[in-house]
Amino acid sequence: MATVPKIPPGVRAVRNRFEAWRKAKSGREKIPERLWAQAAALGKRYGVNLVSHLLRLNHSDLRDRIGAVRAPKRRMAGPAFLEWTPAAPVPCAPAATAEYFLELETRPGRVLRVRSRGASVADVAELARRLVEAAP
User: Fold this and answer.
1) Cβ-Cβ contacts under 8 Å for 87 (sequence gap 6 or more)
2) Number of other residues whose CB lies within 10 A of the CB of residue 39
3) What one-character-per-residue DSSP string does 69-114 give?
4) I need a surface site. Which of 20, 45, 57, 130 has the fewest CB within 10 A?
């Protein structure tokens, strides 16, 4: 069952003006600028989606009228290369060399995988911290 949205103050009067204009118009007349101006003011205050629904207006047209077109987000480029020099390894037998596989999700859908041999746990933790800080 669909719920009826609560009509904010001031929207009902503009809605009535739109309905009166729709009944009185003949054919495919353009919406008068004074009605667009009132709808745009309400859209700025209550949101384009709600106002376009309540006034039965095209969402994109109302959005364009109030200038709410959003520019694409600019993403900062991360470093192309991150140099990491682990501390000097402690000499040990080759069979006992530790190997770590690090997998970091820097943002949804973007996974960074790193394989390290001969580094300590502290070194791998430091690498992970630096990678997360450098991720855009």
Assistant:
1) 119, 120, 122, 123
2) 26
3) PPPPPPPPPPPS-----PPPPPP--GGG--EEEEEEEEETTEEEEE
4) 20
CB count within 10 Å of CB 52 equals: 19
**What percentage of the chain carries pLDDT values higher than 90?**
22
The whole-angstrom separation of Cα 82 and Cα 65 is: 46
User: Quick one: tokens of 34?
Assistant: 């004074």
pTM of the model: 0.48
Cα gap 22→28, rounded to integer Å: 10
Residues in Cβ contact with 136 at an 8 Å cutoff, skipping those fewer than 6 apart: 75, 76, 77, 78, 106, 107
What are residue 110's DSSP bridge partners? 107
Q: How many CB atoms lie within 10 A of CB 104?
A: 14
| Location of structure tokens 């300590």 | 120
Domain ranges within the chain, ordered by starting residue: 11-66, 73-136
Q: Quote the DSSP letter at residue 80.
A: S
In 3D space, the residue among 31, 2, 3 whose CA is nearest the CA of residue 17 turns out to be 31
